[in-house]
Design brief:
This protein has helices at residues 2-22, 25-45, 47-54, 69-77, 84-129, 133-136, 141-148, 150-182, 184-231, 233-238, 242-292, 301-343, 398-405, 428-432, 449-454, 461-473, 477-482, 500-513, 530-543, 579-585, 587-600, and strands at 359-369, 372-383, 387-392, 413-418, 421-422, 435-439, 518-522, 548-552, 564-569, 572-577. It is α/β, with parallel strands linked by helices. The protein is elongated, with a radius of gyration of 36 Å.
Length: 601
């Protein structure tokens, strides 16, 4: 059969995909389907004795049931007389047991589906959380979002249709076994008819699979564009280009829905021709049996029941398989995505960093990105509770160096030592738990102020006290106290309800609540007005000596009191010293100070 050839050749990988998540549960699903088919077959065998009784037969034997006649003979041997009452009782018993087995089979299948979706989401989220930053920055954000949202739903649909296909295949096999035991010649005729139905579906399978691949590809593109639409909404609105951008997205939406419509039409065609084709094959086989083979119609009635059930299961199998193909590309997409996440897994050590005690040392480190040298021969010693500022022209490597210090980027050569222990030997999260990170665009979650600062810790009296304490340290307590909902006020998307300075203070409060040892400020005040910058700078100066502060600075006035200033140029450290030392000894730094002083006058 073309169906079986396609299924075995192309879908074994799908079975392996599901088996990785479900293990032996897949065999329980199929085993319950086998039980349902077996009980249904036993119930159907009772129809011939029932027909003989209806024709006035007084002695019911297994004639006409082929090898299944042993069931009637076995009952006779047990002393059970097959009267109308006993035959009906057996029919009721078998179909009742089938109903019970069918209920638990469907229930278990649904439960396994929920388990599968949950496990798939959890595993993907775990892999994503362990994904290295270096790989992440070069990944397609739209594809990641689409894989974790839309594609997971499509894979769940693929699961339903795939196991619906296998279940129908099991039922076909059970019914055909019963059919061959009753009348093998009649069974062969039905098999020939079944092969004809498969020819009808061949073209549909091919087209559906191609359309499924198109939907997955377009879905990735749509998610990428949507992310950029949300991120750049302010710019698009201010420049009057939001309509043009939306028009670009509308074309993608139309393509997606066009492909979905075509797949739906193919599914409708299968459903529409399913029953007429089924009845046509049965009629054709009966004609051949009665007129060509001169067989008795009454002798094939039970066989006909099996064949009708088997053909119904066959067409259901083909329908489920076509539905599976309509979302099968999502399986390939998720498998590839999962493999990429595993391959891009962050390198991790085995030692825990329980506390940050001494400092960080960078010994002759280099960092390259795709064969492009970014940092070269970096030597630096950062002592605990000192303030180190990084300055230099754009592209000099300041932020990259900080990313190396935080463990976001692995060095190409040299060593990063944390408390004299190589960073490569540490569990990164145990080290990064000691780091607080404040960027130019402060990270604000669309949630309450309390949850933003505490990072969704339990709302207890102790945590509330700690919350207000860090707000006071960040000089934002007065503002929060004046809000109607106070700590429970919602901040909106990206902190829409806050000014730039307030967002920065909320970010600082979060890192203070975390009790980080190392605070990193990556041009945290460069986008603020002078007054707000001065206020936040005063807050930062209050933290000096209590935390290890690493400051990437554009405005040199904000780092006058830093213990060490690192001047960078073209990925190398050009000079180090405090503010006065660099002004006196380095002409480049002095020129930068004079230029900014002139600009501010």
């Amino acid at each position: 059969m073309i169906f079986l050839k396609s299924f075995i050749k192309n879908r074994f990988t799908a079975f392996h995909f599901f088996y990785r998540y479900l293990g032996i549960r897949v065999f329980f699903v199929l085993g319950l389907s086998l039980l349902v088919g077996f009980l249904d077959g036993l119930g159907l065998t009772m129809f011939l004795p029932l027909l003989k009784i209806a024709d006035g037969g007084s002695d019911v034997i297994g004639d006409g049931l082929g090898k299944l006649g042993m069931l009637v003979e076995w009952l006779n041997d047990l002393g059970i007389e097959l009267t109308l009452f006993t035959v009906l009782c057996f029919m009721l018993l078998f179909f009742t047991l089938k109903g019970v087995a069918s209920f638990y089979s469907t229930y278990y299948k649904v439960a396994v589906r929920q388990y599968f979706v949950r496990e798939m989401r959890l595993k993907l989220l775990t892999h994503l959380s362990n994904y290295s930053y270096k790989h992440f920055v070069s990944s397609d954000a739209g594809r990641i979002q689409n894989a974790l949202t839309g594609e997971v739903g499509r894979v769940a649909t693929a699961y339903t249709n795939y196991f619906g296909t296998l279940q129908s295949l099991v039922m076909v096999m059970v019914y055909m076994v019963f059919a061959f035991m009753v009348d093998w010649r009649f069974a062969l005729l039905i098999c020939a008819g079944g092969l004809l139905t498969d020819l009808v579906f061949r073209r549909i399978y091919t087209v559906t699979k191609k359309l499924s691949s198109n939907v997955t590809r377009l879905g990735n593109t749509y998610q990428r564009l949507m992310i950029q639409f949300v991120q750049n909404f302010k710019y698009l609105k201010a420049t009057g280009t939001s309509g043009d951008y939306a028009k670009k997205m509308k074309f993608i939406v139309k393509d997606i829905e066009s492909n979905n419509l075509r797949m739906s039409v193919l599914g409708i065609r299968i459903s529409a021709i399913r029953e007429p084709m089924l009845i046509g094959i049965v009629c054709m086989v009966i004609m051949v049996q009665v007129y060509a083979l001169k067989g008795s119609l009454s002798a094939v009635l039970v066989s006909l029941l099996f064949f009708y059930r088997s053909l119904a299961s066959l067409t259901a199998m083909q329908t489920n398989y076509n539905n599976f193909l309509s979302v099968s590309a999502s399986l390939d997409n998720i498998s590839t995505f999962e493999s990429e996440l595993k391959e891009g897994r962050e390198a991790d050590g085995i030692s825990e960093l329980s506390g940050f005690e001494n400092g960080i040392q960078l010994k002759d480190i280099d960092f390259s990105y795709e064969d492009i040298s970014v940092l070269r021969s970096i030597h630096l010693d950062i002592r605990k509770n000192t303030t180190v500022a990084f300055v230099g022209e754009s592209g000099s490597g300041k932020t990259t160096l900080v990313n190396v210090i935080t463990g976001l980027l692995p060095v190409s050569r040299g060593q990063v030592l944390v408390d004299d222990m190589p960073l490569s030997e540490l569990k990164l999260q145990s080290y990064q738990k000691h780091i607080g990170y404040i960027t130019q665009e402060a990270v604000i979650f669309n949630d309450t102020i309390f949850n933003n600062v505490t990072f969704w810790e339990e709302d207890t009296p102790e945590n509330r006290d700690k919350f207000w304490r860090v707000l006071k340290q960040a000089s934002i307590d007065g503002f929060v106290d004046q809000l109607p909902e106070k700590a429970d006020s919602l901040l909106g998307h990206g902190g829409l309800n806050l000014s730039g300075g307030q967002r920065q203070r909320i970010s600082i409060a979060r890192e203070l609540y975390k009790e980080a040892d190392i605070l990193i400020l990556d041009e945290a005040t460069s986008a603020l007005d002078s007054q707000t910058e001065r206020e936040i700078q005063e807050n930062i100066e209050l933290l000096q000596g209590q935390y290890t502060l690493l400051i990437v600075a554009h405005r040199l006035s904000t780092i006058k009191h830093a213990d060490t200033i690192v001047l960078m140029e073209n990925g190398t450290i050009k000079a180090t010293g405090d503010f006065d030392q660099l002004v006196a000894s380095n002409s480049q730094f002095k020129a930068m100070v004079e230029l900014q002083t002139f600009e501010n006058e």
